[in-house]
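User: Before I run my own analysis I want an independent prediction to cross-check against. Here's the chain; please return only the C-alpha cells and, at the end, one sentence I can use as a sanity check.
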Amino acid sequence: MNKNTNHNDQHANDLLDALRGLATADISDAMYSLSIPDSTLDPTVRLMVGETLLGRAVTVGRVPTPSNSSQKDLDDTMMLAVQEVIDAATPGSVLVNAVQGIASFANWGGNQALRASKVGMVGMVTDGAIRDLPEMAEYGVTIFAKGASPRAGQHFFSTVIKNGPVICAGVLIKPGDILVGDADGVIAIKPDDVTRIVEKVKDLKEKEQNMRTHILAGGGLVDAVLKYKVR
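Assistant: C-alpha cells:
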C-alpha cells in the first residue's frame, strides 16, 4: 500500500469520525441551511435491523430480469456481482443495493449478512426487501430496507451496475459517498460536503440548546423561534 492510499484512507476515516454521533435530523437541517441538495432516502426505506449506521458506500444496481431473458443473457460478467462486491468490501463499508423500489422479492438474506459481517461491513441499504430477519441481529450489520419477503430474488433480479452510481429510494449514490442512518432514516453525504455540514450542525445545535433553555424556563415557542432562528 502506497503513501497516497494511506493518506486517502486516513482522510476517509477522519470524515467518518467527524460525523460519528450526529443525528440524521441535525444533518438534514444543516444541509438545508447550507443549500446542499436534499439527499435523504425516501422514508419507505426504514430501519429494520440495528440502531445506527455510518459508513462508506459500495454499490450494486439491479433490475427485474426480463421474462424472456436471464442474467447471463444481459451480462454474464455480473452473475456473481453482488457476492463479489461483498467479498471485496473494506471494513466500514455499507452496501447500497438499489433495486428500483421493488419489494416483492428479497434481495438480501442471512448468508450475505453473515459474509458482510466477516469482512467488516457495517450496513446494507436497499429500496427493496430482505429476508431471514430472525438471524440478522446476530451479525451486527445494520439494515435499512423497504420491507421483508420470504421469496428469494436471485432469479427475479439481474445486476447491471457494480460499484457505479445508483439511484436508491430517489437519491443518487456513488461509491465512496457516506451513509448516515438512525431511527429517523438514511442520508447520503458527498465527502466534500462533510466539513461544512459538521460545522453547521455545531452552530445549529448551540441555537437549539438555547431554544430548549428558553422553553424550559417557561418561554413560548414563537418567542424562541423568533429569537434564535434555528433554521
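Sanity check: The mean pLDDT is 93.
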